[in-house]
C-alpha cells in the first residue's frame, strides 16, 4: 500500500514524527541516506570499545515517555533511563575542580566550596530562569510554531519582559553569580544549542534551568539505545523504513509536495513530505530553485551557522580515576574561544574540552582496565578560513597535549584505538548545513523565533523536522519537533 507520508531522514525528529503519524492512522514511509537510523545520534563499536558519537546526556525524560505513550506503549519497558551523578565534573587550568551534583543538598555543598554567597544566588538565578521557562514552554517548546503569528498573543505581550532578550546569557549570569568559576559553568549552557554565551540572549538561561531542575540522564547500554528502540517502535507500528536510500529532490507539482526522487532516479509518490535533513540544507538542495522564492535563498544566506564539533574517539588501555561520566576541562580564556569560533571562524588554539566516559555507567563499553573517551571540542562551521582535510591531524595532536596538561598525563602513550570526526564529516554524513551541529546559531536577540519553520514557506504539504527547525537542538527538543509536525499535519483537511 502506498504511503501517504514520506519522511526524508531517520534522525530522532523523523522517527518521532513517523511514530506519531503512524499511530494516528497515517501510512508512513521513512527513507534514510545512511546504513542506520539515528542521524547524529550514532554509535561506533571497534577493538572492544563502544562510543556514542552524538548526544551523550539528555534532559526532560518525560518527553521520551510521552512519545511512547502516544503509541500506546511504555518507554520504561524497553529503555533504562538512569540519573547521572555527578551530572558533570568541571576542571579549570588552575586545578580547581567542581561537581554538578544531582541532589540539591549535595549541589549546595559544592557551591559553598567555591563561593558561599552564590548558594543563595543560585536560587535567585533559578527563579529568574524559571520565569523564562513558564513564559516559553507552552506557546513555544510544546506547541507547533509556524512563525510570529503563533507567538504574538496577549500572553506573549504580558510575559515578554521575562524572556530578557536584550541581555546576553553572560550578562544574566554575571548579574546572579559572583564566582568566576560558576559564571563559566552557567555560560557553558549556551553551547547546548551551538551558540556563544557572549552573544546569545539571556532567554537561553532556560537551558541550565531545565538541567538543574529536572536532572541529567543517561540510557543504560548507551545513548544509541534510544535510536534503536525508536526504530523498533516505528516498525512495530507499521512504518516502512528503508536505509541506504538517499533522497535528492522533493517532487513538487502545482505548488505542493507530491513525493521524492532518490539518487538512483526512482520516484516515490505521497500526499506530503517531511524533511528530517537540516532544514537549511533541505530548503537549498532538496527543493528546486523554481519552487523557492528568491527571499528564501537570501534568508538562508543570512543565517549564521551554529558551532560544529571536532571529535576524537579514544580507546585507552588505562583508567583515569579522576574522570567522571561527563567532564569539562575549561579553557583559560572563554571569551577568546568564542571569538575564534564565531568571529575568526577558526578553531580555538586553547579550547574547552568535553570528555565523556560511558564506561563509568556501562563497564562493558571498554576492555577491562580501559576507558572509552568521547572527546568533543566546539569548532567553527566549515568555511574557507580553515581546511579540516589538511589541519585535522595537527589539531588532534593539540587536543591530546592539552588533555595531558589538564589532568590526563601520558594520554598519548595509552591510546589503542582512535577515530577523528570533523565538521566536514558532519556535513558529508548527515547533510548538516556547513557542518553545523544545531543549524542556525542563536546569537541574536530573537533568533530562537526566527529558525526555519516546520511548515515550508514555499511549498504546500512540505514540512521540516529536527534540530535546525522549531524548537531547536538536543534530544528532547528534536523529539518535540516531531510532535509539532505531527500535530500540524493533523490540522490538514
Structure commentary:
By secondary structure, the chain is an alpha/beta fold. It folds into 3 domains: 5-35 and 243-303 and 441-490, FAD/NAD(P)-binding domain; 103-214, Guanine Nucleotide Dissociation Inhibitor, domain 1, CATH 1.10.405; 307-430, no CATH class. 37% of the residues lie in helices and 18% in strands. It has helices spanning 12-23, 61-70, 104-114, 117-141, 148-151, 154-163, 169-176, 180-187, 206-214, 224-237, 279-285, 294-302, 334-344, 388-406, 423-430, 475-490; strands spanning 5-8, 28-31, 43-46, 49-52, 81-83, 88-91, 97-100, 217-219, 240-242, 247-253, 256-262, 267-269, 272-275, 308-316, 326-329, 353-356, 371-379, 415-421, 462-464. The strands form 5 sheets. A 7-stranded mixed beta sheet has the order 7-6-15-16-17-14-18. The protein has a 5-stranded parallel beta sheet with strand order 9-2-1-13-19, with helices on one face. A 3-stranded antiparallel beta sheet has the order 10-11-12, with no helix packed on it. Strand 1, helix 1 (12-23) and strand 2 form a beta-alpha-beta unit. The two termini are 22 Å apart. The model has no long low-confidence stretch (mean pLDDT 93).
Give a brief description.
With 493 residues, the protein is an alpha/beta fold. The chain has 16 helices and 19 strands.
